[in-house]
Recover the amino acids of this structure.
């Protein structure tokens, strides 16, 4: 089972890079943020629980998030592995992931940190637009769609996430960056951390992510 962890602050570009890496490796993207947004959209009990944390820019509690991730990793399409976007986000989540992979005689192959300074994160999130159908991300300045308000890939409507409002962006930074540092330390200590300069153009970041994954021996 090939498990690649994509790490980064909110807005670093994880969601932009994850599908490109998935195409390269032939394994699915598992993004806890997308799973939570789907649960909110479908008005499930999990979605109702998660929504109040997401709206406040807080992390959803570990016990809820770990269960959700493990359920998703147990699905047949993830039998060969997955690219994890947005998980783990706390030291406890990182340890839970290690434990469940160990039960399957597996482990995280590499954790790639897409590193972007805070002032650029705010610029990216406040100009981001996402497509309704599949969450493809755009930016009104740096990567606009060909037709305003429509996804280039599937033609669906573009919208701004409720947690991309300025006050929630600042809450996400204030409340989530400390936990990200714990996760970075976890993978650094395990000698699995590779850092990529996320300030470069999207295609250069993709090449750097691919090189980091190749160097870790993760192939298709
Ligand atoms: P989640 O959906 O995971 O959000 P996030 O981590 O805050 O990350 P984003 O999706 O905002 O950013 P991204 O890094 O994917 O950037 P993107 O590629 O879109 O989580 C949402 C919420 O769910 C959390 O706040 C929390 O409440 C909850 N949650 C989720 N997982 C959890 C967990 N494990 N534990 C607890 N709670 C959890 O790019 C951003 C913008 O920049 C786009 O406009 C894009 O076009 C642009 N861009 C990307 N790359 C570049 C580049 N190289 N140059 C210029 N612009 C770029």
């Amino acid at each position: 089972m090939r498990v690649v962890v994509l790490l980064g602050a909110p807005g670093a570009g994880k969601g932009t890079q994850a599908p490109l890496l998935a195409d390269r490796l032939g394994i699915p993207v598992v993004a806890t943020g997308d799973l939570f947004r789907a649960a909110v959209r479908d008005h499930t009990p999990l979605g109702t629980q998660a929504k109040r944390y997401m709206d406040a820019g807080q992390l959803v509690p570990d016990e809820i998030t770990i269960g959700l991730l493990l359920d998703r990793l147990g699905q047949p399409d993830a039998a060969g592995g997955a690219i994890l976007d947005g998980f783990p986000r706390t030291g406890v989540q990182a340890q839970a992931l290690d434990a469940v992979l160990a039960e399957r005689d597996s482990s995280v192959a590499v954790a790639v940190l897409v590193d972007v300074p805070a002032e650029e994160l705010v610029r990216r999130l406040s100009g981001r637009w996402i497509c309704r159908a599949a969450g493809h991300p755009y930016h009104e300045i740096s990567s606009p769609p060909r037709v305003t308000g429509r996804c280039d890939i599937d033609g669906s409507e573009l919208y701004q996430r409720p947690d991309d409002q300025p006050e929630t962006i600042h809450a996400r930074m204030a409340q989530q960056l400390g936990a990200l540092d714990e996760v970075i330390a976890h993978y650094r200590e395990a000698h699995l951390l590779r850092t990529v300069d996320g300030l470069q153009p999207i295609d250069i970041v993709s090449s750097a992510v691919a090189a980091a994954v190749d160097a870790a021996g993760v192939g298709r």
Remarks:
- The chain has a mean pLDDT of 95.
- The chain is about 50% helix and 15% strand.
